[in-house]
Write a structure and sequence with these properties.
LytR-like, five-stranded parallel β-sheet, Sig_transdc_resp-reg_receiver, 32% strand, five-stranded antiparallel β-sheet, phosphoprotein, 7 helices, 27% helix, LytTR_DNA-bd_dom
Amino acid sequence: MESSSGLRVLSCVLIDDEPLALDVLASYCAQLPFLAVQAQFHDAAAALAFIRTHPVDVVFLDIQMPGLNGLHLAQLLPAPAPRIIFTTAYDQYAVRSYELNATDYLLKPVAFERFVQAVSKVYGGAERAEPALPALPVEPPPEAILVRHDGQLRRVAFSEIQYIEGRKEYLLLHTTQGRLLTLQSFRRAEEVLPPARFVRIHRSYLIALAHVEYLERGRVRVAGQLLPIGDTYREVLLERLRGYQQL
């Protein structure tokens, strides 16, 4: 498919049983002029029926869904099969996804930059006669993080997060609206949270600079709680605080 300007446009289908996750994917696609969303589905079986009669270039596919899951759906796609980009909150399916020749495997919450990287792999697979990947629009950073809590994907605004506490493989988000426990790593959180507003102060704590009340010897008070400052994080914290005050 080509646009009026001659730009190659990739047709795609979005499949996810969680409405919020589907909305995020749709908003990301809308920001890229070379993606055209043909349909969105909460049900994998309905999506398969559509793809069998409406060939597309790319399928953005969740894995854990009721009934027909994403891995099974990927094996049922008609030939020539579209490129598959899995989008899931679980990393244990990564090996299986590549056995199915998936183009990429995105872990939720998916950052826009990571989404673009995945799409670029599909676009880069076009014939050499096709134009190179066009310059991407400069978009404002996201203002929220998506976390899974009590079986739901929840949207938590950055402004609501006071600090994040590590509890083994889980993160406990302390927010102005309450606490949320989610299965996620600090690394994943740090990829999404803007560094100008959040900083790691300890191997078990990451804080929002906006909620810092004061510092004392080896500790920082955030939202009424005194949290320890690790020796290796002290200088970074002070530097970020100075930069935050100048904003």
